[in-house]
Automatic annotation (TrEMBL):
Residues 251-276 form the C3H1-type domain. A zinc finger (C3H1-type) spans 251-276. The lineage of its organism: Eukaryota, Metazoa, Chordata, Craniata, Vertebrata. This is ZC12D ribonuclease. It comes from Struthidea cinerea. Its cofactor is Mg(2+).
Length: 309
């Protein structure tokens, strides 16, 4: 009976010493419920609960080992958090809509095309700023197309209206460009606009650098939103690196040497030589010196000694 109870509570995770102590106090014929109550009263905990209370520390794992994913999950980083590596997107709604409408019509369909393009890439934080007076019915001097799209984007918490009001029949509009730059700067994101915001660049030197480095221009080609593949010029980052927080560096491609084995530059040659493993290149003079210092085989050394006077 003692052994069966001992095995039963050991399977539950309690220590043998605590179980034996309780059985000595209550007697061998004590009920299992009474033994369990006594163990709880003594403050004894199963090992599984103790392990949960004290999580194991992260271990250093060698590079290339697949066990590093366990550490990432313990830190709360999942594979589903891949979208966190992409930068937040702040869209200048007025600029995008007027560009899509050929600067004549405020085309809300252009805003939808831009939002869909970033959604397909996996961006989760997308904000569009539009003045509040665009909610009003369209007039002849300010036509609006597909105005219902603004309502749909507002329900999805993507579109944000910048405040405006009427004072004595005149409309007072807040400067929506300041909202766009401020939110993008605070979120460390990207501004989508063809405007250069020169007045805001002169206002704040930090904003000047941010606008120069994080402004993503675009074009509409047959109802297709198309940002450039090189947002900062030919020598700048690619579009994917520009939109991600952790840019991926391209692999260095070696160009083969046009002289081949006849090259005399040695270690100063900037081209790739397949006959030189790991690019451990020496100058021609150093290679000749290294060859002369190589010791001869034992048999050849004896022959050389016999031949020498």
């Amino acid at each position: 009976v003692h052994q069966s109870k001992l095995d039963f509570f050991c399977k539950l995770g309690y220590g043998k010493q605590d179980i034996c102590k309780v059985l000595e106090n209550l007697g061998q014929e004590a009920l299992e419920d009474d033994v369990l109550k006594e163990l709880i009263r003594m403050g004894s905990k199963p090992r599984a609960l103790e392990n949960q209370a004290q999580p194991s520390q992260l271990k250093l794992v060698a590079r290339g080992s697949c066990s590093t994913t366990v550490g990432l999950k313990w830190l709360g980083e999942d594979e589903s958090d891949a979208s966190n590596s992409l930068r937040p997107i702040v869209i200048d709604g007025s600029n995008v809509a007027m560009s899509h409408g050929n600067k004549e019509v405020f085309s809300c369909w252009g805003i939808q095309l831009a939002v869909d393009w970033f959604r397909e890439r996996g961006h989760t934080y997308i904000k569009v700023f539009v003045p509040l007076w665009r909610k009003e019915p369209p007039r002849q001097d300010s036509p609006i197309a597909d105005q219902h799209i603004l309502e749909e984007l507002e329900k999805q918490s993507i579109l944000v209206y910048t405040p405006s009001r009427k004072v004595k029949g005149k409309r007072v509009v807040c400067y929506d460009d300041r909202y766009i730059v401020k939110v993008a700067y605070e979120k460390d994101g990207v501004i989508v606009s063809n405007d250069h915001y020169r007045d805001l660049q002169n206002e704040n030197p930090e904003w000047k650098w941010f606008i120069e480095q994080r402004l993503l221009m675009y074009s509409f080609v047959s109802n297709r939103f198309m940002p450039p593949d090189d947002p900062l010029g030919r020598h700048g980052p690619t579009l994917s690196n520009f939109l991600s927080k952790k840019p991926v560096l391209p692999e260095k491609k070696w160009q083969p040497c046009p002289y081949g084995k006849k090259c005399t530059y040695g270690n100063k040659c900037k081209f790739y030589h397949p006959e030189r493993p790991h690019q451990a290149q020496l100058s021609v003079a150093d290679e000749l010196r290294a060859k002369t210092k190589v010791p001869l085989a034992p048999g050849k050394e004896e022959e050389r000694c016999q031949c020498s006077p």
